[in-house]
Amino acid sequence: MQYRCTTTARRRGMLARTPFTETEIEGVGTYRLPNQWQGQRLRRLRGEERHTAVLAIGCGMTVRQFNKLPADKQHEVHKTYLALMAPSNVVPLADPAPAYTRAIPRAHLSIDQKLAIGRRLLRNKAALHYGHFGPWLDKEEGLSRHMASQCMALAKVSEGEKRAA
User: Fold this and answer.
1) Rg (CA), the chain
2) Contact predicate 78/55, CB 8 Å
3) Per-10-residue mean pLDDT for the chain, 165 residues long?
4) What is the dihedral sign for C-alpha 116, 117, 118, 122?
5) What is the C-alpha to C-alpha distance for residues 45 and 22, in angstroms, rounded to an integer?
6) Would you kindly state where each structural domain of the chain is located, as residue ranges?
């Protein structure tokens, strides 16, 4: 069985950091991991039917077409799926900010969380040039300008109380 990486990362020489997203299987074709929409559809299925459907969709086939493949080809597809899902192939998501400083969309934040977010926002605001903080803040997910101003005001008051004490 020959695996061939077809991601653009290989062409750029970043293979160590970028996971394989698809492989070529001789006699079957290209196997790709299911996309988000396909994954939602697959979650409705249960048991062996679901596993077979994951393998079939990855090959661009129906379950009936996949079941008609010879057993050795089905086994190769299964091994390819396991290789793509291996922990060594999955790159962890980058976490730009510590968890306690991230805003949670539509959630109630504790005072400590608001203080931590406010302090981080004040540090970022001080580091940015005049007029750049607003656009940067708009890119932050889950944090409105109103909530940001509340958090920063709370952090300023907290800092003022610490200095006064």
Assistant:
1) 24
2) yes
3) 44 50 85 84 83 89 92 91 76 58 65 88 88 84 85 90 73
4) positive
5) 23
6) 8-85, 99-164
φ and ψ of 26, to 5 deg: -60, 130
Q: Which residue type does 70 have?
A: P
pLDDT digits (tens, 9 = 90+) for 14-36: 444 456 778 888 888 888 888 88
Say what the pTM is: 0.46
Q: What is the DSSP letter of 90?
A: P
Task: Decide: 148 and 101 in contact? Cβ < 8 Å.
Answer: no
* Per-residue model confidence as pLDDT tens digits over 92-105: 655 566 655 565 55
3-state secondary structure at position 130? coil
Identity at 89, one-letter amino acid code: N
